[in-house]
Design goal:
single chain; 390 residues; alpha+beta; Rossmann fold; Tumour Suppressor Smad4; 13-stranded antiparallel β-sheet; 5-stranded parallel β-sheet; 12 helices; globular
């Protein structure tokens, strides 16, 4: 069967995954002296559950991490969330605190129910574990962003790399991510990214005329406009419709088609620091403008668009042959040494253009129309409680 995994195997592996993860939580030193309640929000169609190569590697990592966790004392003050018992119709999974998603919006609904449980009983410390891809993570983090500070201060989120790209995970390596539960860790609040458009503007999904009400759009890894947003948009359309090898080729083709389908014209960009002071301005024909919640960020399945401490990367328009020559450098981060790349730090980036341009927020896309300008990408205050070792 090659890399294909049967439905029965997926179910069995998810039960194994839930059991191992519950064992890890039961021996975790997280939030010492507090009762611990956890929920695992798992996407059963994510690559880590349905691809055989990922499944076999994940099984080994889970067994090793569970064994490492068992060297810690067994906690008597922890248990799966009651929300899992209420929402999961599989008793084996519910007993481990795991709830599977059923489609778009499901992860957000589960997270809201878990937060409602935290409202009812604020005494324990609450842990959300996402086991999916960037879409699952985006839904859960968006719910946390809109949660009251008093609740967020009493919980944390751990994002396991169970999807295809996993750029929003706490580590691209499953064992490294699980170390945050096995070793002593602390909660650290990190900012989100917010896209704001001009008052009275509207956003369309793909240029077909469909529009939706303008509202702040959120990202928690990278928020960007231009070429990479187009590749993301086409990736979302073609994912699952093409065989793996041809799919990879299509992604390369999409990146070369961009300026045939969208006008690459001048963008006026103003860069501000955390005190609201303008520190830079530019007017360039830009292929892309990417802003990270911090430096050292990847997107597009671990492409190192922000490989150092700087959190903004702008790439100038260039001839086709030059694009072909530079395309592979984004995998290693070597693009930052080329004259077409501009990297800097910013708290807020304001930009305007004369033509529609696609934006992407952690893998979700929207088309910015001319009336949306000037648009803003800005860092929010630290709002997302994540785990850090130490």
């Amino acid at each position: 069967m090659g890399n294909e995994v049967s439905k029965k195997e997926v179910i069995m592996y998810i039960e194994f995954f839930a059991t191992m993860l519950a064992e890890i939580c039961a021996h975790s030193p997280l939030a010492p002296g507090r009762h611990l309640r956890w929920i695992i929000i798992a996407n059963p169609t994510a690559g880590g559950f349905v691809m055989r190569s990922r499944l076999n590697k994940g099984r080994m990592a889970m067994e090793q991490c569970a064994a490492a966790a068992q060297t810690n004392p067994l906690r008597e003050d922890c248990a799966p969330a009651q929300t899992a018992m209420q929402l999961c119709n599989n008793p084996a999974l519910a007993a481990c605190g795991l709830v599977t998603t059923e489609g778009p919006g499901s992860a957000a609904d589960i997270a809201r129910a878990f937060i409602d449980e935290a409202k009812e009983n604020p005494a324990p410390f609450y842990l959300i574990i996402t086991a999916g891809g960037d879409g699952t993570s985006l839904e859960v983090l968006s719910v946390l962003y809109h949660t009251h500070e008093s609740l967020r201060s009493n919980m944390a989120v751990l994002r396991l790399p169970m999807g295809t790209g996993n750029d929003g995970a706490d580590s691209p390596d499953l064992a490294a991510a699980l170390e945050l539960l096995i070793k002593p860790s602390r909660v650290e609040f990190t900012p989100a990214l917010r896209l704001l458009t001009a008052p009275g503007g509207c956003t369309g999904d793909d240029g077909t005329g469909k529009t939706e009400s303008k509202a702040p759009l959120l990202a928690f890894n990278i928020l960007s406009v231009g070429l990479d947003a187009f590749v993301t948009h086409m990736t979302n359309k073609m994912k699952g419709k093409l065989p793996g090898d041809f799919y990879k080729l299509w992604v390369d083709i999409a990146s070369l088609l961009y300026d045939r389908l969208y006008k690459v014209d001048f963008l006026d960009v103003k860069v501000l620091d955390g005190q609201g002071r303008e520190v830079r301005s530019l007017r360039e024909k830009l292929l892309l403008l990417a802003v990270g919640a911090s430096g050292h960020r990847t997107y597009g399945s671990q492409k190192k668009i922000l490989p150092d401490d700087r959190n903004v990367c702008a790439v100038k328009q260039m001839p086709l042959l030059r694009k072909l020559a530079l395309k592979g450098l984004f995998t290693t981060g070597a693009h930052i040494d080329k004259p077409e790349s501009l990297l800097f730090n910013a708290h807020r980036v304001e930009f305007s253009g004369s033509f529609p341009i696609l934006a992407q927020m952690d893998g979700e896309t929207v088309l910015l129309q001319r009336e949306d300008f000037p648009a803003v990408i800005e860092l929010t205050p630290p709002v997302i409680p994540v785990l850090k070792l130490g």
